[in-house]
């Protein structure tokens, strides 16, 4: 009798083991997961760390809401934060680390265009999605069907800024450009200059600076000699804050205009009173958003004790999009490679307004390159030490 029971037990165990799914890519037996892991890659240190902190907080809020509601088909969403320091060399190392971790199913990030560009071939080779909530360089998505973003490109942003100056700020007769000599700064500068020349803006100077610089007096002296009515800064908040401050100290009275890289509360802190009156573009503003965005802002402030910014909102949506893809496609029986590809295929299928993802930053759907379609731009101005919506918005481009 004992031998019969032992034999029955062995047969049963063999049957159970035989039914456990195997990962085709590794040949190893898979255990039913209790959590689904997604990486968030951003500059958590370095001169763009203020962006990284908002990205972290936006991601944490969305993950908390998802998990508090029962997770993704009963599984916990776990975020793994990876610091690329805003540098392409570090981003390559981060991308290799993420791509080789077979527990990670997708990447929200990177933020800096140079970092997304550095990670792109690595993620493509490994077959894992990167969904950027911040990279705007025109080349970020092209050439890889594994890279997506949920905001506009710099060719649109540069054109928008030039037309805003031409149509709205009509008393500005001449413009100088001061640009960060990296993928983001150069790409945006080129798009702005192309449109400015097309519509007849008077460009009187173009000066480059290197990231991490703190003294811009030489370039500002050169710009001052050209006496521009406006200075367009194509770079990030950390340098832009110092540029505006040093310009005012040098007696430069020109109107400053920044792009979305300036859209951080830290710009206000660095520039101080010199920031007053600065215009900038942004891919999202809570002032023009609906009830869902206002509720997100309230929840964010309750959780983190500060108000969210544009990048927190875009990251919140990016995490939501990946979670939605996981909910609809993830299979415990499938291989890592197949589950990663299912996420990619789901995002690629969001190619019409009807199929798009409805988030707090609006409707997101993609073209064949993974670029988002018809996401707008807004203009803010610094008044009384705060970012507020500009009185006049540019609703259509020529």
3D structure, described in words:
With 398 residues, this protein is α/β, with parallel strands linked by helices. 43% of the residues lie in helices and 18% in strands. The protein has a 7-stranded mixed beta sheet, with helices on both faces. Strands 2-1-3-4-5 form a 5-stranded parallel beta sheet, sandwiched between helices. A two-stranded antiparallel sheet has the order 11-12. A hairpin with a 2-residue loop joins β13 and β14. The N and C termini lie far apart (88 Å).
Brief digest:
By secondary structure, the chain is an alpha/beta fold. Helix content is 43%, strand content 18%.
Structural class: alpha/beta
Number of strands: 14
Beta content comes to 15-25%
Low-confidence stretches: 1-21
CA-to-CA gap between the ends? Answer: 88 Å
Q: Shape, please?
A: elongated
Q: Mean pLDDT score, rounded?
A: 92
What is the gyration radius calculated from CA atoms? 24 Å
Instruction: Profile the largest sheet.
Output: 7 strands, mixed
